[in-house]
From TrEMBL, chain A:
The keyword Ion transport applies. Keywords: Cell membrane, Ion transport, Membrane, Plasmid, Sodium, Sodium transport, Symport, Transmembrane, Transmembrane helix, Transport. It is found in: Cell membrane. The chain crosses the membrane at residues 6-25, 45-64, 76-96, 117-140, 146-174, 186-209, 257-277, 298-318, 338-361, 382-401, 407-433, 440-462, 482-500, 531-553, 573-591, 626-647. PROSITE patterns: NA_SOLUT_SYMP_3. It comes from Martelella lutilitoris. InterPro entries: Na/Glc_symporter_sf, Na/solute_symporter, Sodium:Solute_Symporter. It is a multi-pass membrane protein. GO terms for biological process: sodium ion transport. The keyword Ion transport applies. GO terms for cellular component: plasma membrane. This is Sodium:solute symporter family protein.
From TrEMBL, chain B:
The chain crosses the membrane at residues 36-60, 72-89, 95-116. It comes from Martelella lutilitoris. It comes from the Bacteria. This is Uncharacterized protein. Keywords: Membrane, Plasmid, Transmembrane, Transmembrane helix.
């Protein structure tokens, strides 16, 4: 085909994609006008639709861009990515069903509202907003940056990354700002399907251009025979007591089993984040959670990761010309229709995640922070308008930052997952562990966030700016910041729960606990299997992503060390991860159905009717709060400037 | 069909054509570009698969093709047929291009007739095209 076809398919597919998106935005906006479903799609998303959207947002785009690149860089030394499908599914199994019922009882539709109702804590609402903003600006900004670079390459340089990301920003805002949650749900389904196909097609090309599965493994074997490449095919011990990256820790030898385990926990933060819970609480029935988490996320997307994304990443490890961007560039010449389609698929995945995070950040800032605490008189229409304005501002901020301050965006992106993981504790408090008290949850999350920030580059740089040099670097002892934060979080929660009154629950919290004790009480079979379930989970974590990974280094290798034989024709760690994925799907099924953690329940939940309370005029209190906020901000700024001027640089 | 059911049916149709349908197109074009009848055939097979998915979605949703879908489908068929005939007259078609095109159009026509006959019966399928003047509304009642 001529060079015309090379240049035509990319813009043609992009325009078609935008046209389809605008169609669904229009459909959503028209339906929103009828039932006011801008913020939660009127709780009408079908369970199968939510399952796909959750899986697509949880895994697709950042696994193609992130995990694929990590495998190309480090081979199998971080096998945690390969079982990402199971890891991301597990939190959903633990939380979704119970949180959906709690939300249905209290008639709320977001994580911030759940925390406000259950713990009555503005701090937790603010943390939810912070996590959402971190996802919107940092986590998504990083992916928009990568995506804009690909767009620039595919357009032959005609589009600069700045222009590409600006166009993408407009598309993002059109999708989210106009259609709201309903557009995210409806078009998110198509986006998830597109990104899935793009991953398969990408892996197909990578495999085909690598000479097939056998040739790929033969080349990997050849690579493994060279001693300097051995690190690509093994996990580097259990732990290394280094000071962390930047403080004596070496990136090449930091891929230990504990690094894998702690990164696994960070990945598990995603489904405890406000983004995914927004989709969960916009779903009309909880009956799809078990199937969605077991078969769609752990099974289907898990398979996609362990086969397709692994193959695409490994092709890049063997030949840099087969990494994502050069591969797409080469495809642009030989098969421009496939290149355009894969590009659109990856873009759809990025848009799904970025759109969801922008929407949740905008909603939380306006509807859960500004309105209840600073302007209770704000009407529904004005709230939607203001949310749209905030989404636009956040979009612009993300675009400006990822173009002008990429280092800061990276630092913020690094905080998103571990910060979301800190929300596990209050989520467990709402769903399972009723003894977690309000002060414990609040202080625990505070300590958790401090632990995360102090073991990530952002905290390191901030303190350095103020003149305080931390004695450790990023991820001391090869432990990810998610686990450092969680250690501080859990310690604080245990101590404070022990010394505070565990029965001091507000009325909404008592309603939720009553609901769990009656309608969602475990059956006899689930109670009988409880010990086995704990053992199975711990064993899986130990072997699949924990210290047991070092067995995987050689478990499927025979022969002597001079001429090892790969017993399954593939690297031992790949086979080990494959076995862990299969067992992980079984574990997800067992927890979802047998342990009834996500199994379908069909009952009517009557809305909770709060006792009638007088609503005094809030305007005076709101003005005072605003004053306090402004004064606190001004004093903090002055203190920061003063400290930085005195000690820092 | 309720509003939600209709929207969900349309979503499934969009997703099917965006994924399976576009991959059919890509494989067909790949076959033409590489002069490989096998690849083109894979594209044609995927078109059939996509139509089958569409019909299954219709069956589950208890409806048929909408007027817009039928118009778009027949219109696209007509445009493709015109392009094929123009390329044939121009003489730029290789043997693989020629047979790929004929296979695609043959399969589409056969599939269309098969669909009509299974859905409406042979006599009913004929009636879909044969409008009596009284039915067209031109005759005075």
């Amino acid at each position: 085909m001529s060079s015309i076809s090379e240049s035509v398919w990319f813009p043609l597919c992009s325009l078609l994609y935008i046209a389809v998106m605008l169609h669904w935005v229009r459909v959503s906006a028209r339906m929103n006008a009828g039932d006011g479903g801008f913020f939660s799609a009127a709780h009408s998303l079908a369970p199968w639709l939510s399952a796909l959207v959750i899986a697509g947002a949880s895994l697709a785009a950042w696994f193609v861009l992130g995990a694929g690149g990590a495998i190309s860089d480090d081979g199998f030394s971080m096998p945690v990515y390969l079982v990402g499908g199971v890891l991301v599914a597990l939190p959903g199994i633990v939380f979704f069903k119970r949180v959906w019922f709690a939300a249905e009882r209290l008639r709320v539709s977001s994580q911030a509202e759940i925390f406000r109702a259950y713990f009555q804590s503005p701090f937790l609402v603010a943390v939810v907003a912070l996590v959402a903003v971190l996802f919107a600006i940092g986590f998504s900004g990083l992916q928009i940056r990568a995506f804009a670079s690909i767009a620039s390459v595919l357009s032959g340089g005609a589009l600069s990354p700045l222009v590409a990301s600006t166009v993408f920003g407009f598309v993002l805002f059109a999708g989210v700002g106009i259609g709201g949650m309903r557009a995210l749900g409806y078009f998110g389904f198509i986006q998830a399907a597109l990104v899935f196909c793009a991953i398969v097609a990408l892996a197909g090309f990578a495999l085909s251009w690598s000479g097939g599965f056998a040739a790929l493994n033969a080349n990997l074997y050849q690579l493994a025979m060279s001693p300097e490449n051995a690190r690509f095919f093994s996990v580097d011990g259990i732990i290394r007591f280094t000071g962390g990256l930047g403080r004596g820790g070496d990136a090449a030898t930091s891929h230990t089993a504990i690094a894998n385990l702690s990164l696994a926990f960070a990945l598990m933060g995603f489904q405890a984040s406000p983004l995914v819970l927004k989709v969960v609480l916009s779903t009309r029935s909880p009956n799809g959670f078990a199937a969605g988490q077991t078969w769609v996320t752990a099974g289907f997307f898990g398979a996609l990761i362990i086969f397709a994304i692994a193959i695409a990443g490994l092709a890049g490890l063997l030949d840099p010309a087969l990494r994502l961007v050069p591969l797409l560039d080469a495809m642009q010449v030989s098969s421009p229709w496939f290149a355009a389609w894969i590009f659109i698929g990856i873009g759809a995945g990025v848009q799904l995640l970025a759109g969801l995070s922008l929407f949740v950040a905008g909603e939380t800032l306006v509807r859960h922070l500004y309105k209840p605490y600073f302007n209770a008189a704000l009407g529904q229409r004005a709230t939607i308008t203001l949310t749209r304005v905030v989404i636009a501002v956040l979009t612009v901020a993300a675009l400006v930052m990822q173009n002008l301050t990429p280092v800061t965006v990276s630092a913020l992106a690094g905080l998103a997952l571990p910060a979301a993981f800190q929300l596990w504790v209050p989520m467990l408090g709402v769903t399972w562990l009723g003894w977690i008290t309000r002060p414990a949850a609040v202080i625990g999350v505070g300590f958790g966030l401090a632990g995360v920030v102090l073991t990530e580059p952002l905290g390191y740089q901030l303190l350095s700016f103020l003149g305080l040099e931390l004695p450790w670097g990023r991820w001391p002892w090869t432990i990810h910041s998610a686990v450092w934060g969680m250690a501080a979080n859990v310690t604080a929660v245990l101590i404070i729960s022990a010394i505070t009154n565990r029965n001091a629950l507000c009325e909404e919290a008592r309603e939720v606990r009553k609901l769990y004790a009656t309608l969602l009480a475990s059956g006899g079979e689930a109670r009988r299997f409880r010990a086995f379930a704990w053992s199975a989970v711990l064993a899986w974590f130990f072997l699949a992503v924990g210290p047991g990974l070092i067995f995987g280094n050689t478990a499927f290798t025979g022969g002597d060390s001079a001429a090892p034989v790969w017993l399954l024709g593939m690297p031992s760690l790949w086979a080990w991860a494959l076995a862990a994925w299969i067992l992980g799907v079984g574990l997800a099924w067992f927890l979802s159905y047998k342990m009834e953690m996500a199994s379908p329940v069909t009952v009517e939940i009557p809305p909770y009717e709060p006792p009638p309370r007088l609503r005094p005029d809030q305007s005076r209190a709101e003005r005072e709060r605003l004053g306090i906020l402004v004064i606190t901000g001004a004093v903090s700024f002055a203190l920061v400037v003063l400290i930085a001027f005195s000690f820092g640089g | 069909m309720s509003g939600h059911a209709k929207v969900e049916r349309n979503l499934l149709v969009f997703a099917a054509w965006a994924t399976s349908g576009f991959s059919a197109l890509a494989f067909f074009l790949e076959g033409l570009a590489r002069d490989s009848y096998l690849l083109s055939l894979a594209g044609v097979a995927l078109v059939v698969v996509t139509f089958a998915i569409h019909i299954v979605i219709n069956a589950v949703s208890d409806c048929g093709f909408s007027a817009g879908e039928a118009t778009l489908g027949i219109g696209a068929f007509g445009v493709l047929a015109l392009v094929f005939i123009a390329a044939w007259l121009d003489g730029g078609l290789t043997a693989v291009d020629y047979w790929s095109g004929l296979t695609l159009f043959g399969v589409l026509v056969c599939g269309f007739l098969l669909y009509l006959s299974t859905r409406h019966g042979l006599r009913g399928a004929f009636s879909r095209f044969h409008f009596k003047p009284a039915e067209s509304g031109n005759e005075p009642r």
